Records
---
Amino acid sequence: MLTWTVVGLLAIGVYGQRALGAVLLDTDRLEEHWQGVLRSIPLAIIVAVVALQTFTSSQAFSFDARAIGVGAAALCAWRRLPMLVTVLVAAAVTAAVRQL
Amino acid sequence: MKFTRGEAASLAFTYFTAGLAVSVLHVTQGTDPVVVIAAALIVNSATSTLAFAAVTASGGSILAGVFSGWLVATRFGLFAAALGPRLWPERWKRAIAAHLAFDPSVALGIREDDDADARSVFVQAGLWLCVPWWIAAVLGSTVADQLGDTRTLGLDAVLPAMLIAIIFPQLRSRLGATIAVIAAALALALVEFTPGGIPVLIAGTASLLALRARPAIEVGV
């Protein structure tokens, strides 16, 4: 259960990290190779988030309808279908498989 | 690649449905609807409030819950650091815009070669996801009782699906694909043994592979 105190603490910690990250660096001081690393961080982290959201629930492995829906979405993205189609296919496939 | 209407609609749909699901969950766990709305607006991170709820629901202390909430948000700090320098030279402007640093807004912004485009796409994407997310929090926490299980609609697959659509162009380069495979493997290998947030942070080190790349085949371009 969230309380005002908890929300306040979470807000300070979360916004603090966002703001700190945003003001910390100037890319023109970084070597080109490190700029490449900086640009790859979101890719690595987002792929990890996707993997966890697809194949785990409550910090344990699980393979269910959701994984099949996300798989269908990967297929759509690979075929360069519009993002909205990809998202709707994922929901529809997941819902359909769950109905089985 | 510019920000398209289809992308705007996808962001709005995804974050609206996520906002509904998350706020319903918090209200049904006993949180005051007003606090749920406040959390959506000022914490602005569903993973943080969900991490708190998961830790405390499984017997963890309030402090442990808050710490987990911070830990899962470290990725937003890294996102802000990755895009921040390209946004504005003035640090106070970056600090304000940092509140909009989410996975998709940063990933879409960072795809742009031109700094002005990166800034415009980041701000537009950030608003197209935050505003529907805030509206959904208000709606979801007030009508929580009338909504059923959002999982029957397959909505739990929507966010990962959208993130895949956003990062897919980067997976077409060999370096991007290698980073992705290593990051996913690291996260999945660690998830059962480490606290929430840690697998994703360690997976982020896969980006160091970009050190080996020549600038011409740099990812994210």
Note: The radius of gyration of chain B is 18 Å.
---
Amino acid sequence: MDFLDPMINGFGVVLQPVNLLYCFIGVAIGMLIGVLPGLGPTATIAILLPLSYGMEPVTAIIMLAGIYYGAQYGGTITSVLLRLPGEASSVVTVFDGYALAKQGRAGTALGIAAIGSFIGGTLAIFGLALFAPIVARYALDFGPPEYAAMTVLGVLLVATVGNGHKLKSVIAATVGLLLATVGRDIFTGAPRFTFGNLALMEGIGFIAIAMGVFGLGEIIYNIEQRHQRVSVPAKVANVWPSGKDLKQASGAMGRGSVLGFALGVLPGGGATLSSMVSYSIEKRRAKNPERFGRGAIEGVAGPETANNAAATSSFIPLLTLGIPANATMAIMLGALLIQGITPGPQLVSEHPDLFWGVINSMFIGNILLLIMSIPLVGIFVKILRVREGILAPITALITLLGVYTISNSIFDMVLVIVFGVLGYLMKKFGFDAGPLVLAFVLGGLLESSVRQSMRIFDGDATGFLTRPISATLIVMFFIVALLPAIQKLWKRRRLQLSKKTEPATDEKTKVESTKID
Amino acid sequence: MANVSSAVLVGAIGLSCMAGALALGLGTPSEPGSGMWPFILSVVLISLSVALALLARRITDVEKFSGASWAVLAGTAGLVAFVFLLPVIGFEIPSLVLTFAWLRFLSKETWRMSSLLSVSIVAAFYAIFVLLLGVPLPHLF
């Protein structure tokens, strides 16, 4: 059990009172804001970024990770009680969670979700402890070409697996990469796209972009959405699920953990994808699948376990390769970079306290979540009644004043508003903001590795194909980029074939189409 | 239609970035200059905008602007005014006016509710940012 040794040392870091306190604060704030209408986990972390600014790196990341879990669970609470998923990964929880709530079993649904999240998160942490150092060791051999190929593949995957239209997401990502070029060129020192503005010489601040696009953009977008008054159930009882419910849910939790862990490592919406796949697996496995959508415990247990396991395992690419797997991880990466830490394969060996501290804080965060969520559900139900209209000006002011506190700069506030408007317009025109922010964070790394590679290859771009790892990644890039076109051609041919040989192919296409879903 | 206009906008961004990149100098493939990377990106962006314009009719994920969109504009204008007034007259009065107007006119709260809330919100912010955190925020009092 050697691989567990550094992990146990990591507990020493987390269990320091300061870190424990911030983990607790993070989970509490995250849950609180996650429950409040209008802001999902990504927006929550973005708005609260300035809080982490003056902290020790380990403490800062521990708190942000705590906010992440808390906010995710807050989203679960609103899915079950109000049918309002906080983010895409708890959309499927709505189906059976809300049905259970209508039967007066909201407490059971929330309890099962909390226990499932705990189990999924905990199992994923063991997987993380086991696999992350292996990935990191492997990645130590990566040179600029490998990083260039991997980053470009990561950006493309996030853009294509995400929520929005693929083409629009790739456009958003490209704009993000362009935004990253603003400021002094690190190779030549020449100012780029600064329009003579001194404040732009150091580049656009990550916080301004994240808080603007995710935070303020979301807030002003919500002004327009006249939400109907929601009716909140008056009381939620029996949060501890019965033994029978637990037994019924245990299989779903086990499968959800493994599934979530495996899918979470993949770039692009791992948590969302895994919750959906988990739901469809549970439904297909069930003896009487018609129960699903009418309050099946497994329909809550599976997806909630899977999305938490995925949220945990998505830390693997971030901490070992420095590549965030989704928008939330992009914010984590931004926060680490601000702290002067560049996550990468060296992190495990150079900052073991940070690496294992973060991983174990997730474990502690999960325990805190379990302890807090069950008795506090009643309070959260009360918070749900706060009207969104009252929150909007408060969150808008917090966002603006928060960004000001970082470097006491009015210009940063202006930037937040500019990016807030951009975020709003992107939402209106159907562009997903996640790829933009993610590409922005990775832009610097991508440009410098591409430029270094070009020097190594002496200007010959085919050099990327001469190294096995970068060649594989580049081939994968083209497969992902061209996949939609190939699929379309294939479908068309299929359609022609099925016209000739009628029913035989029908069943197959059905299976295929559910898989894509 | 909205997709066509966003495609045109994206294309325009691409073209202006390309002009900027060319002005920075591309360098050679083995010794890339400052403008090389932005140039590559702008070429990608322009081709993507052309693709978007071609596919525009088939993409239907655009939300129409409605009467309520004016509220967004009003809210944003309020925020801009807040940021410009902040260094001049401190944060208390702009915050008070902003929260009150937002609550009363955008969120349609009652006069009573809006006045009570806006005063207590600003008081809370004063306590947190000025007294507790000691942020050097321009303030009157």
Note: The two ends of chain A are 40 Å apart (CA to CA).
